[in-house]
Write a structure and sequence with these properties.
The structure is a homodimer.
Chain A lengths: L1 E7 L7 H17 L4 E3 L17 H18 L6 E9 L7 E9 L2 E7 L24 E4 L2 E7 L20 H8 L3 E5 L8 H16 L3 E4 L2 E4 L2 E4 L3 E4 L3 E5 L6 E7 L5 E3 L15 H19 L5 E4 L4 H14 L4 E5 L7 H14 L2 E4 L3 H15 L5 H23 L2 E4 L3 H6 L12 E2 L6 H15 L6 H5 L12 H4 L3 H13 L5 H15 L4 H14 L1 H5 L26
Parallel strand pairs in A: 1-2, 2-3, 7-8, 8-9, 16-17, 16-19, 17-18, 19-20
Antiparallel strand pairs in A: 1-14, 3-4, 4-5, 6-7, 9-12, 10-11, 12-13, 14-15
Helix pairs in contact in A: 1-2, 5-6, 5-11, 6-7, 6-11, 8-9, 14-15
């Protein structure tokens, strides 16, 4: 019999003292529950992912000191094993560090296991800093149990049954199966995106069954720049599958018993049911992920309040609603900035929206400023300001106004672009792309509508006025302008984009739908031209994305480090 | 006896047809010289580095078709071996591609060698897409010679003598030494930075000597976003060292003989001398690297002309001078945008500068625009616009004006920030950071002065007016403002920054100087506080760098992918 406390915490990158404090509090709770071990997540000492901080000698010194502090703390509960994640030194050829799991007890390191499979795809780049560990199972006797250990990616190469091909030549689960411990503890920093929780359950339930191993999977929560961790730590048994799941998007500390038969049990009473395979509905998942991502980004960068340019359109409306959800209405400010080409709704709908949300709205017309620019432009450059230059000027004057406000009053500016716009470059650099963080940059426009409707349904009232949801999307930078004058309808555009940008990263169902859609479009008059035009727009706007702020990732393949494309390239 | 043509070309990422055309032309020249083999560089088929284009199925199809085209071309010169670089498919666990060297002859692939050492540090991320090749030397008999092959990084782990520790567990040079071919051909995509040429000579001359191998090292030239390749391909012998060097920063096609004694010879006549170990003087190196980087970036992005905001300060002056150097005076436009706080010199010195350079200068005052913003700010937000918000507004109004010009007339906007400013965030996001490319972003301010003086010396006259070089640096955003009011003197700042940001990436001499400087500063009154303040500024301005355009890399550790730091982190 073994008592295990899973400590699903919100660590901050670089905040070694703070992370130790969080671990200490969880260890106190574990000791209270008389747990044999308390399990933290991958790189819990330094937060995930520290990047090139790992190259700084002073950072490594702080890590050494932090590990010493942790070791000293373990003496307070001499019977408790602490399973922590930390970079450790590697001697010999290769990178100078390992991504390690350490079992600490009573002032000593009882076991060190170095992560074997270091991901180098999508947002991951661990081979940059770490050397892989040896292909050996590490097992420690705790009480009368043998406990084996894995770190995150180590568990993801067990795909024989999935027929997906292996990402690495070795599969740590095979050695672990040979060692046949009573329990496998897997520590993780597993970023969250659409479908990820279900994928984890599938992979680990299959591995548990195939290798006859009960597995405890501990993840972290919290937002780290573009990335959000959702927690949802879980316990899985060979036969019963996933029998326990911790909270999502919240810290959670929970103690379980592993009984003699290898079943997980609650510490009081008996019986854990099978956890539902279906998680949050997609839109509610998006909402919770974005809310946590914003909350952590703002807090960690030292912002209490945010400001959003309110155009009367759906993107800014949804951004405002999510910001209120994350930070409270008192901490959110909207600014409406009508120009000559703004519809009446631009201001009126913003007023209604901000009233619904309880948010302060400022009005700052830009017409005179635009006129001033246009006059000076003609005087200096000898031609009237017109066309695209005039359209972009409006966006930039608004972006400048928002930054005035941000600089003067200390609010974090949120940018409002969605993934459809960002994909095809339907946005003005140094204008509406201004901001420290984007909330919708990984949501397609069709999803922006869907999430807006969800927000209203959830509130039981029109937080986002229906008129905003119903109006045809427009940048309102020229008379009578509509997005669909220059872009295909979003229902078409989004399917092309999913197919082009995310491809095999999509779920099977979403990919099949997008691929079939594109296939059908190819056979329609003008279809191939539409597809080619979209592809070209995506390639040609790489330079804009390079200068974009971080945009919260909710899908498997987000812009940012998830998709690394050259700018000055030839695309056929 | 073997005749080898080294083809040092300027490939473009993604331009498979264009790259094949370039190779075909060089092959024709090789055939004319009756060469046995013509050597192109690493990934010559697709350009270096294609990034996630390698994940696109359509790109892989284009590569397949391109390789077939190349194979067909080789039939035109049936006696000629083509040594090309291309991604090839990898079967089995791991990444789906290899970074391969292929020897093609008369329609067939005669040899495939897969790069073994895949760099994952600094700007390199090859493990993201490629699986390493097997630890075996690949040798091909050509005529009566055995020729061995390596790809770039494969040659960089031979550091026993240097006592620097090994970056990888294997050293391809050891197996190559065992195979003892008559010649080793190394194909490379080796980005250029201060000291890199000398480092290549040192590493490969030592390896040639240690393993008794004559080596032909073929590099490419050209600018790829932030990165510039300098060519400088070379031939090195075990005893004599580097005996031949191709041009730097220019395409060069050159045929050499390898005689029976293993000596390289010119094809006509005899005798190659030892190549001087010292390359270009540093400032001339910077100049040539930046000129090529700008030229290629502009051309590849479809720009003929550039525009620069001319403040009358040294950064914009040097940017203008380098732009003229790269593109010609007719293709460069300056805009002076005086405000209330601009010194008289701001306009007058810009006029003189642009007259010296032969560049068209527009004057576009921003005083009225600033007044308009300030009026509307107070009317909308109820407070006067002042302090930092007012300072930044000036930079943003200028940035907006420059983008009006860029959008209206189709000029590429160049940003002018130097590495000192970019490091400490002494710049306005969406203001003076606006632009598609930065020329000086990897030069410290002290180097900006030095390069400016070099440009004048080289021209034999004041291209950059001495008054601009002599005036104390100022952002001119507030009355009487000087950079050194808010920052340490640049002579101090730059040494701290070199030590903090580049550390062990610096040359030994530069590192020793910076480390000693910082050490001394620590013992001086206020020294530790200055150091701490600079470090904090660097960490706190990560968010600005994340939104910066590509800045041409000239030093070993440039911002961009060369230094990957989290934004929302805790720095102690």
């Amino acid at each position: 019999m073994l008592k295990v406390t899973l400590a699903q915490l919100n660590y901050m990158v670089g905040d070694i003292h703070g992370n130790i404090r969080r671990m200490r509090e969880a260890a106190a709770k574990a000791a209270q529950d008389k747990a044999d071990l308390v399990v933290f997540s991958e790189l819990s000492l330094c937060g995930y992912y520290p990047g090139d901080l790992l190259d700084e000698p002073s950072f490594l010194q702080r890590l050494d000191a932090g590990l010493q502090d942790l070791l000293n703390l373990t003496r307070q509960y001499p019977a408790l094993h602490w399973v922590v994640g930390a970079p450790t030194r590697h001697q010999g050829p290769g990178k100078r560090l390992h991504n390690s799991l350490l079992v600490l007890k009573d002032g000593k390191i009882r076991l060190q296991y170095d992560k074997q499979l270091l991901p180098t795809y999508n947002i991951f780049d661990e081979r940059r800093h770490f050397e892989p560990g040896a292909d050996t199972a590490k097992v420690l006797r705790i009480g009368n149990c043998q406990v084996g250990f894995l770190v995150c990616e180590d568990g993801w190469n067990d795909r024989v049954a999935n027929d997906q091909g292996a990402d690495y030549a070795t599969n740590p689960f095979v050695r672990m199966g040979d060692a046949a411990p009573d329990l496998v503890v897997s520590i993780n920093a597993s970023p969250s995106h659409m479908g990820k929780r279900e994928q984890r359950h599938e992979i680990f339930a299959q591995a548990a069954q195939r290798h006859r191993l009960p597995i405890l999977y501990v993840n972290q929560i919290g937002g780290q720049d573009q990335i959000v961790f959702d927690g949802a730590s879980f316990a899985v048994e060979p036969e019963a599958g996933v029998v326990f799941e911790a909270r999502r998007f919240e810290e959670d500390i929970h103690t379980l018993k592993l009984d003699e038969q290898g079943h997980f049990q609650p510490i009081h009473g008996e019986g854990l049911g099978r956890v539902a395979s279906q998680g949050l509905p997609l839109m509610e998942f998006y909402r919770q992920q974005i809310v946590l991502g914003l909350r952590d980004y703002a807090r960690r960068c030292g912002f209490k309040q945010v400001v959003v340019g309110s155009s009367g359109g759906i993107d800014s409306a949804l951004t405002l609603a999510l910001a209120v959800d994350a930070l409270g209405a008192d901490n959110v400010v909207g600014i409406t900035m009508p120009s000559r080409y703004s519809s009446a709704g631009s201001v009126d709908d913003s007023v209604q929206l901000c009233r619904n949300l309880g948010v302060k709205l400022h009005e700052h017309p830009i017409k005179d400023l635009i006129d001033g620019y246009a006059r000076q432009f003609e005087a200096s450059f000898g031609e009237p300001l017109k066309g695209l230059a005039l359209e972009n000027l409006q966006a930039r004057t608004r972006g400048t106004t928002l930054m005035e406000f941000s600089n003067a009053f200390g609010h974090l500016l949120l940018t409002t672009g969605n993934k459809s716009e960002v994909s095809v470059g339907y946005c003005t650099l140094y204008g509406d792309t201004n901001g420290g963080l984007g909330l919708l940059g990984d949501l397609y426009k069709t999803e922006v509508f869907e999430l807006s409707r969800h927000i209203n349904r959830r509130a039981g009232r029109e937080l986002i006025p229906q008129v905003i949801i119903d109006k045809p999307p427009s940048a309102e930078l020229a008379p009578g302008q509509k997005d669909e004058d220059s872009l295909p309808p979003y229902a078409v555009l989004d399917e092309i984009l999913k197919w082009q940008i995310e491809g095999h990263h999509l779920s099977n169902a979403e990919y099949a739908r997008a691929a079939e859609f594109v296939q059908r479009l190819r056979t329609q008059p003008g279809g191939p031209e539409t597809i080619a035009r979209v592809q070209k727009l995506v390639f040609r706007s790489e330079y804009k994305r390079r200068q974009a702020p971080p945009m919260l990732r909710v899908r498997p393949r987000a812009f940012g480090t998830g998709r690394q494309m050259p700018i000055a390239a030839h695309y056929e």
